[in-house]
Amino acid sequence: MKPFSKLLGAALAAAVLAAPAVQAQEMKFFRIGTGSAGGTYFPIGGIIANGISNPPGSRPCDKGGSCGVPGLVAIAQSTNASAHNVTAINAGQMEAGLTGAATLYFAYHGEAKFKGKQKPKLRIIANLFPEDLHLVLPKGKKLASLKDLKGKRVGIAQAGSGTQIAVELMLKEQGITRDNIDEAELNNTQSAERIADGQLDAYFYAAGTPVAAMIQLDNTKGMDLYSFSDAEVKTSNKAVPYYTPSKIKAGTYPGVTYDVNTLAVNGILATSSDQPEELIYQITKALWNKNTRKLLDNGHAKGKVITLETALLGLDGLNVPLHPGAERFYKEKGLIK
Length: 337
Description:
Blueprint: H1 2-17, H2 19-23, E1 28-33, H3 41-52, E2 53-54, E3 69-70, E4 72-77, H4 82-90, E5 96-100, H5 101-109, E6 122-138, E7 153-155, H6 162-172, E8 182-184, H7 188-196, E9 202-207, H8 212-219, E10 223-225, H9 230-239, E11 244-248, E12 260-272, H10 277-287, H11 290-299, H12 324-332
Parallel strand pairs: 1-4, 1-5, 2-3, 7-8, 7-9
Antiparallel strand pairs: 5-12, 6-9, 6-10, 6-12, 11-12
């Protein structure tokens, strides 16, 4: 969180040094829930926060300053990821957050682990990038099938993550539950450390490639990735429809020299219906300006695939509304009629 603490500190310093200008401009904080530091949500959330921020006292966009929303200080907060974020957004504890499409669907409609706990305030700002499901194994270890996980020590991601919800649904189709594995509820970094130390036999994590914690594991102890069979992909997709067939290409992690069959879910930037239309309109506009484009292209490998052209990709089947502010922006751009 240090980079974002510095951003906040810089914003406050600017407010003091530029008092006359700031008095006419209200400072507004905008919290964005992300994920753990070893995943992809955290760095992507930080880039987005940087792009949409324009703290009081900043230089104007046309003079080389921030091109974000005037007066806005966006802060990326590390969380337990998708399920935590949608719950916090709905409760008004965060203004926005990143979430997998499957979790967003379950939360909005009150299904799976959200049964009886519908989150009707959730709204979409944009589709961002695909998150590939990784099943990480110690280097040299193989599984004949997912059923081989029975009796093993398996990381199923942290409580409050979309990965955990999806993985439990997928494994149930293979006859695997918490009753026949030794499950560990850990974040990505913790899981990678346990694999390296020999304390886990495998762990699941869905994130945009390449994933920081896995890069480190690959570069030190080494790792292998499980390649789902076509039948397992089909069964898993049936269990969680918003996880669709995908492939992690050979060389994505240097030590993994083969293509990996898996599934992927879209990562989405969500907010609440309580957020003002004009604010979300300006945030959506800032998300897709040229300045943010440069930050995304240079900040993370997955940033390059976050584009205006794919901002609405795959959203039709979710039946979760766009926020009116985002909808107005996309209509202006001709992406919605």
